[in-house]
Amino acid sequence: MNLNELKHAGLKKWIEDAVSLMTPESVEICDGSKAEYDRMIKVLVDSGLGTPLKARPNSYLFHSDPSDVARVENRTYIASKTEDDAGPTNHWIDPVELKKTMTDLYKGCMKGRTMYVIPFSMGPVGSDIAKIGVEISDSAYVVVNMHIMTRVGSKVLDVLGTDGFYVPCFHSIGKPLGPGESDNGKWPCAPLEHKYISHFPETREIWSYGSGYGGNALLGKKCLALRIASVLARDEGWLAEHMLILKITDPKGSVKYMACAFPSACGKTNLAMLIPTLPGWKVETVGDDIAWMKFGADGRLYAINPESGFFGVAPGTNNDSNFNAMESIKSNTIFTNCGLTEDGDIWWEQIGYGAPGKEILDWKGNKKPAPQTDKAVKGEEVAHPNARFTAPAKQCPVIASEWEDPKGVPISAFLFGGRRPSTIPLINESKSWIHGVFMGSITGSEITAAALDLAAGTIRRDPFAMLPFCGYHMGDYFKHWINIGKKAEAEGHGDKLPKIFFCNWFRKDKDDHFIWPGYGENSRALAWVFERCDGKDNCVETAIGNLPKPGTIEPPAGVSAEAMAELCSVDIEGWKKEIADVREKHYPQFGAKLPKELSEELDAIEKRLNS
Ligand code: GTP
Ligand code: SPV
Ligand code: MN
């Protein structure tokens, strides 16, 4: 298709303006076909950027520039009209100023390259929860990844019609080519100080410059489906969340759906594909990263997965930790920043086996002796800790049959969690919706490698796992969650709201070992949640919420009765510190926008802990 065939006049004009600004050598409108995918892959392989993997059909390995390996949070901007609308947790630049700076960067930025126009749908094409975006990009790597992660192509333009709403997304890697110049097999990107991942919430626009990696460049994901969508959701009365969606079936065949928010690299993909160790239980995947939820006519909250693929953390993924992910990536998969073995396969730390052969190519492109074991050596990793796979969701052996149902799946429970070595129990049910919102608001985690510019290891609060993804003031976001509950109550559907839980798979003992084995054993906590949702008498009320009644969660092998009791009890001293930290450091940053319901909740918990 060429530009003149576009029926949407606004879209056509937007593309034409981008062409005159960015001056690409040519323009291609993506149709989303297999032929197009194959053609892009050929471009990438011929240019030396992509390496075909002998061991995996139709799969390719890419190595990015060492400066371009994860989201750049301190180059990510919410450029709302006022700084107060972006709030204390976002970086803000005045939108007029930012557009000026970026327009200068965009001038001629696609010289010598093709401009790809990628029309995509987040959510099943035509679903009334779905949203359309159009990404303009000069990266063929972005095109192939978008093919997997979103629904791309002509069918999207059909839904858009002549004047439909779309989120315009500019993306350039920021590396124009001079005459006769080529990338020479090197990942093109701009230096850090020129990278900008910008969002204009009022005008629903995304402008990204300088990075080709993950959430910085695949603009349907964090930029549209979370930062812009969170603003749309606030305005339109729904929820756009950093949550996996799972389907769980009990031994009697009864089904529930749960949506769980954990910060980046804290186990969403794992939990979404979990193989229960509890006999008779089954978990299936609806989504592994993002959930969009709206109330149905029956008053229940329905969730869709706006994505169509997994962009999952590779290191640590193995047949024991995530068998279903390993099955999902056997073919048709793009790998980025993994190691390359002599026999033409990918490799990473904790893949479950040492690397075959004598040598291995690490993610920086250096040859190293092939590691005999799969243990990580800090600073010497073969795969970057944020190396990722991009795989079609439909390849997951436990993908739920309804994962693309346009009306979504009804959610019974929300789980919030993070990596917390102490204090936070294995599983804890909130006493009420507001108490649940309180728990979401104080979610925290040890920092992981998913963001480039943060010190791994320390704990940071990551409210609702949305800290880097909320497109507006976090205090207003808390209020929006409170309002969702109030709306349901007012409409007589309060009893249909999902129950809210807090979980923690990451408690450690004095020797820094995990107390809880995690992974498939997490099914024990999920089963407890399932039964709570059915109103089973399996909990004890405590100062911090409803904890498992002793004996209602069988300890898995290797967990003593004492350890189990510790995981399911209130650490009063730890919680007092937690509350003090929230009161002194966390909540004050939201100022007058902190909903009074949450400070009241804080007071109430403190009172209970002291009584
Ligand atoms: P994003 O894609 O960055 O949003 O992250 P995610 O939440 O999907 O992360 P993912 O599931 O890929 O988490 C990966 C990391 O969490 C790996 O290091 C896993 O080994 C670890 N992990 C996942 N589940 C568990 C668990 O139950 N226990 C422990 N100890 N580690 C876990
Ligand atoms: C995350 O960091 O939460 C991710 C990866 O899911 S990225 O798409 O790069 O944001
Ligand atoms: Mn994520």
- Global geometry: globular
- The poorly predicted ranges are none
Averaged pLDDT? 96
Rg measurement, Å? 24 Å
Sheet-strand content, in percent, reads: 15-25%
Helix count equals 16
Helix content: 25-40%
| Ligands (ions, cofactors included) | guanosine-5'-triphosphate, sulfopyruvate, manganese (II) ion
Biggest β-sheet: count, sense, barrel?
Answer: 9 strands, mixed
Number of strand segments: 30
Class computed from helices, strands and strand pairing: alpha+beta
Terminal Cα span? 70 Å
Topology (SSEs and partners):
Elements: H1 9-22, E1 26-29, H2 34-46, E2 50-52, E3 60-62, E4 76-78, H3 83-86, H4 95-106, E5 114-122, E6 131-137, H5 140-149, E7 151-152, H6 154-160, E8 167-172, E9 196-200, E10 205-209, H7 214-217, H8 220-236, E11 239-241, E12 243-249, E13 255-261, H9 268-272, E14 282-287, E15 291-295, E16 301-304, E17 309-313, H10 323-328, E18 334-336, E19 339-341, E20 346-347, E21 359-361, E22 367-369, E23 388-392, E24 409-417, E25 427-429, H11 433-441, E26 444-446, E27 459-461, H12 474-490, E28 499-503, H13 523-533, E29 539-541, E30 546-548, H14 561-567, H15 572-586, H16 596-610
Parallel strand pairs: 1-5, 3-18, 4-9, 6-8, 8-10, 13-24, 24-28
Antiparallel strand pairs: 2-3, 5-6, 5-7, 9-10, 11-15, 12-13, 12-14, 15-16, 16-24, 17-23, 18-23, 19-20, 19-21, 21-22, 25-28, 26-27, 29-30
Helix pairs in contact: 2-5, 11-12, 11-16, 15-16
The structure holds guanosine-5'-triphosphate, sulfopyruvate and manganese (II) ion.
What would you note in describing this structure?
- The chain is α+β, with helices and mostly antiparallel strands and 611 residues long.
- 27% of the residues lie in helices and 22% in strands.
- It has 16 helices and 30 strands.
- The strands form six sheets. Strands 11, 12, 13, 14, 15, 16, 24, 25 and 28 form a nine-stranded mixed β-sheet that branches. Strands 1, 4, 5, 6, 7, 8, 9 and 10 form an eight-stranded mixed β-sheet that branches. A five-stranded mixed β-sheet has the order 2-3-18-23-17.
- Helix 11 packs antiparallel against helix 12 (474-490).
- It starts with 8 loop residues before the first helix and ends with a helix.
- The structure holds guanosine-5'-triphosphate, sulfopyruvate and manganese (II) ion.
- Guanosine-5'-triphosphate is lined by residues 262, 264-270, 288-289, 312-313, 316, 321, 450, 505-506, 514, 518-519, 522.
- Sulfopyruvate binds at residues 71, 214-215, 221-222, 264, 289, 311, 450.
